[in-house]
Known about the structure:
Layout: H1 3-24, E1 31-33, E2 40-42, H2 43-59, E3 64-67, E4 81-89, H3 91-97, E5 102-109, E6 112-120, E7 125-130, E8 135-137, E9 140-141, E10 154-156, H4 173-179, E11 182-184, H5 189-198, E12 203-209, H6 211-223, E13 227-229, E14 242-247, H7 249-259
Parallel strand pairs: 3-4, 10-11, 10-12
Antiparallel strand pairs: 1-2, 4-5, 5-6, 6-7, 7-8, 8-9, 12-14, 13-14
The structure holds D-MYO-inositol-1-phosphate (IPD) and calcium ion (CA) (2 copies).
Amino acid sequence: MNWEEIDTYAKEWVKEAGNRIRLSFEKTLSIETKSNANDLVTNMDKEIEQFFINKIRGMYPEHRIMGEEGFGDELNSLDGIVWLIDPIDGTMNFIHQQRNFAISIGIYENGIGQIGLVYDVVHDELYHAIRGKGAFLNGKQLPVLKESKVKESIIALNATWVMENHRIDHNLLIPLVRNARGTRSYGTAALELVFVATGRVDAYLSMRLSPWDIAAGAVIVEELGGVVTNLKGEKHNFLSQDSLFTANPGLHQEILKDYLRVGQS
Ligand code: IPD
Ligand code: CA
Ligand code: CA
């Protein structure tokens, strides 16, 4: 498979999509809700997903597409080449802040991530990786991740998970928040993953994400030696929703063992 060629097209389309999003700042958005009043979608989320689908279908008709807004294929497996697309990750930020959102595209072959592209449109920062070829930010190679301990780490997580909730025993997270150097919450899983890749944060935890939130960032983080699993330390299947826990390797192990108590009865 010519991954370099696919990567070149994907980057070109991501940049073009970014331009469309920037131009949309001048126009009035049409905003709708999805599963609940805070689950938002705009005309731009839909337009950008359709833009990618048209490009991919035109160039690679045999590839399959999983898109958040549902214009792609209904997939029961990741056989063959699959594009996992989140046209705007951080839609709430896009609407309220016009920043802190990204385009996220992961390209997988038989379930293995081959290309990851996360484009921070407002900062014009493209994070990208081809499996085995290193990870880059705007063409500049990123260094392999250094290990860190909780006490000197910044952990990205949403405050919701430290309140009583039905996805995790929040008592596990309180000591983590207390012992960490600091916590951050950006409201965009794709960017939080690449912030782990660049060492801007050392770990990111979320209780429920979809395959398109994680697919691109996972390729980039793993390319730099970072670990990407769910909160039980298991690999994602990229077909269903799951939790996410990503960090540099030493920190991943420390949090899994000492805080999330994985492997202990
Ligand atoms: C959301 C963002 C957010 C995460 C949510 C996602 P969306 O994606 O990644 O950070 O906490 O779970 O759904 O809906 O803006 O594409
Ligand atoms: Ca998303
Ligand atoms: Ca989205």
